[in-house]
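Appendix B, Record 12. Input sequence as logged:
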Amino acid sequence: MPKINAATVAEHRAQQRAALIRAAVDVLVDQGAAAVTPAAVGARAGLARSSFYQYFPSAAALLAAVVEEAFTAADTATAEALADVHDPAARLDAFVRTELLLAARGAHRPAKALLQADLPPECLARVHELHHRHHAPLQAAVAELTGGVDAPELTAQLVGGTVQAAMTAVEHGADPTRVADRALALLHHGLTPPDERA
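Logged structural output:
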């Protein structure tokens, strides 16, 4: 029986699977989707290529797992941040601040790489689906703040662009709290009807 580094075989397998996913993310970010092969990922994870197939039947299956994992942590963090927040302006704040904290931890690297990668069509479609689902709370808050009028789709895209720019700034070393304060000041000003501005 192979040596295991966990209390149970199930825990050992979970650890090995997670190691392969982390290794795949590193290869994906560094070299692109085409470089995510059983040999490359196994080597990065410190496992034999033959061991790879005990966890994933193919590189495509591993990429599909990376797609799902890439959004799980962000979705969980956002759900927790918004759990008891009902005012749309406060939900906007909570969403943006959570996104920037995640960006500071590098949590968005896999999703960003996946969106730019030459993925199989089914994987790419799933990435876009999960990306849209993740941003749904932001879009809902923007729609509520603007009353659903005033070009809601365009407005949501512009807000998303501001959040993306803020995330990029944080990923390049800017302080997430400072960036969030500035981005939210711009967003709240832009989303407040002119007749309600002080």
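Residues 63-196 form a domain with the Tetracycline Repressor; domain 2 fold (CATH 1.10.357.10).
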